[in-house]
């Protein structure tokens, strides 16, 4: 927990919202808005990891740091692993925090919350979740559910992640938010693993870690940050920034 680097993976290949990282939000590209929120979290240095020069130029134009990575990465985890090795080849930073590039409204406190579970020895990966209170989303497979148990340290230990409605019975459901804080050794281990059976079945990368016996603990936050995937999402993000 002594030192961390925050990396935001970004690429231009989104189909529902072309050129998504460069979409303008009240005068700045979305990727820059995410970068600003990550800097405000005050965890450590922040960089954008990308394979596209136009994203890197936009970041540089606004005073941020961008790291060029290979074009053949299959996941954001692979991209941040390469970027961490480029930015910190000597391993000065013992934690790598992955913030998604399409959450321009994420609160700095939510970013810090993903980092918090690593205060518990033995936790490999920290992440966040929020209670799923809207009944319209309970059975929506796009809202990934975290099945967890309290860990006795103010967070929860992840037992499973799924697209179905789980667990059964009375009690809250939790929506998992894909921001991850990796111990450096855990990130190295994770990207070396092949895709796992449950990961491929559920299409959830974090299951690879659980199937390999790695420990993921989860902080609860008050509400989910809106991610931007469609033109309508983008308009809502713009409207939210106009009220700030």
Q: Give the oligomeric state.
A: single chain
Flag low-confidence runs.
Answer: none
Kindly state the number of beta strands: 11
Q: What is the average per-residue confidence, as pLDDT, rounded to a whole number? A: 94
Strand adjacency order, main sheet? 5-4-1-6-10-7-11-9-8
In a nutshell, what does this entry contain?
It is built from 8 helices and 11 strands. The chain is α/β, with parallel strands linked by helices and 244 residues long.
Describe this structure in words.
With 244 residues, the chain is of the alpha/beta class. 30% of the residues lie in helices and 24% in strands. It is built from 8 helices and 11 strands. The protein has helices spanning 30-40, 53-61, 76-87, 108-115, 184-192, 197-202, 206-211, 231-242, and strands spanning 4-10, 24-25, 28-29, 46-50, 66-68, 95-98, 125-131, 145-150, 156-162, 174-183, 216-220. The chain has a 9-stranded mixed β-sheet with strand order 5-4-1-6-10-7-11-9-8, sandwiched between helices. Helix 2 links the parallel strand 4 and strand 5. The chain starts with a strand and ends with a helix. 42% of the residues are buried. The mean pLDDT is 94.
What are the defining features of this structure?
11 strands; alpha/beta; globular; single chain; 9-stranded mixed beta sheet; 24% strand; two-stranded antiparallel sheet
């Amino acid at each position: 927990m002594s030192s961390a680097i925050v990396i935001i993976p970004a690429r231009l290949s989104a189909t529902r919202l072309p050129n998504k990282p460069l979409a303008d939000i009240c005068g700045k590209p979305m990727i820059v808005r995410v970068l600003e929120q990550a800097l405000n979290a005050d965890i450590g240095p922040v960089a954008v990891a990308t394979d596209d020069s136009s994203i890197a130029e936009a970041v540089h134009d606004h005073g941020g740091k961008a790291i060029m990575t290979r074009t053949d990465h299959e996941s954001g985890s692979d991209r941040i692993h390469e970027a961490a090795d480029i930015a910190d080849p000597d391993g000065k930073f013992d934690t790598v925090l992955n913030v998604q590039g399409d959450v321009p409204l994420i609160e700095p406190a939510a970013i810090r919350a993903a980092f918090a579970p690593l205060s518990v020895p033995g936790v490999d990966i920290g992440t966040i979740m929020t209670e799923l209170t809207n009944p319209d989303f309970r059975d929506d497979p796009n809202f990934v559910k975290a099945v967890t148990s309290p860990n006795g340290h103010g967070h929860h230990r992840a037992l499973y992640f799924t697209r179905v409605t789980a667990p059964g019975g009375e009690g809250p459901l939790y929506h998992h938010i894909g921001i991850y804080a990796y111990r450096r050794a855990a990130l190295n281990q994770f990207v070396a693993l092949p895709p796992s059976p449950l990961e491929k079945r559920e299409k959830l990368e974090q299951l690879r870690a659980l199937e390999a016996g790695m420990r993921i603990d989860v902080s609860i936050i008050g509400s989910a940050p809106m991610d931007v995937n469609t033109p309508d999402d983008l308009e809502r993000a713009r409207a939210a920034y106009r009220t700030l």
